[in-house]
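Q: I have 371 residues here and want to know how they pack in 3D. Can you give me a structure?
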Amino acid sequence: MLYVRDHLKAAGGSTYLLNTLPRFDPMRVRPSLCVLGPLQPDYRPAPLDALDVTFSSRTARDPRRLLDLWRVARRVRPDLLLLSGPRSMVQGRLLARAIGVPSLLRLNFVFDVPPVQAHVQRWLSGPRHRVVAVSEAVRAWAARDFGLPAESIEVVYPAHDWTRYGKTAAGVRSRLRKTLGIAPEASAVLLVGRLLLAEKGQDVMLKALPALLFARPDTVLLLAGDGPDRIAAERLADELGVAARVRFLGHREDVPDLLAACDIVVAPSTCEEAFGLVALEAHAAGRPVVVSDAGGLAEVVTDEANGLHARRGDPAALTAAVRRLLDDPALARRLVERGRADVQRFGLDAHMTRLTELCERLARDPGNRNT
């Protein structure tokens, strides 16, 4: 199998890829990876060293990327292409047609589809070229914007290795809170996500913070993640007068430790989220969670069952939900208990079995290959 991906960076899609590729049984699926772009200089996760991976140095619009893909395919001689990303979905499917192998397109994103790209995807679709979506929200988007029959798109939820969560080293909570300047009795609210205000909603949480601080002056907000809007977010915190109660942590590799140090996790996304990995991380770590009713987040978190919903883009609603959890420990414990149970549905073992069977079914079907 040749896995073609647009990029590899510190984000949920790359984390999923690096969790799954090394776990394929090599006697059933032997994966190779081609990334349509260079590796970020400051990003070298350990699983990369165990993978057969090729990076392209071409720019996004360079047509020679197809030639790079062709060369990789000649070396790997794949029976199947697995594609992930807006550019991979076009270039990879063109390659699959050219070399006569089936493709599996994994949709883990939602974006505004140009009419030309939608037309190309319909032209490239067919029984030899299957589509899977990471949530019902993504399936509905793909059916609507690409004009594909919804029944032809299979939902395969992502999975993760949860063993790191809830099993942090002894004393990590107190040590990390001391490092971050959080008093032992203070309430710590954690938001993990790229600093892109139009998508992840850090501005919504910052606007919710003054009212939260009025009720609970010791509250501290932890913003883990970096991105193009960091300066704008810092300026907003200053304007709101809450900068002293906010910790801008930048990119972090110790999310399980941050979860141990916090009391509540929020995911106030304002975009149509494809999935809700951060909510599952909170479940696995035994932390109550508040999310916006945004796409795949609402599929992971059921309101009043394993978390709370707050209306998208509404700071007052977010404040109210966080206060409920802080003021009602019994409610928080009930939601956490259900969340711990629900996260087991997204375990890697069952996911790898399903993904392996799907790959084998596509690759081995004689009708899926050119003669």
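Q: Anything worth noting?
A: The chain has a mean pLDDT of 90. Residues 208 and 315 are 4 Å apart (CA to CA).
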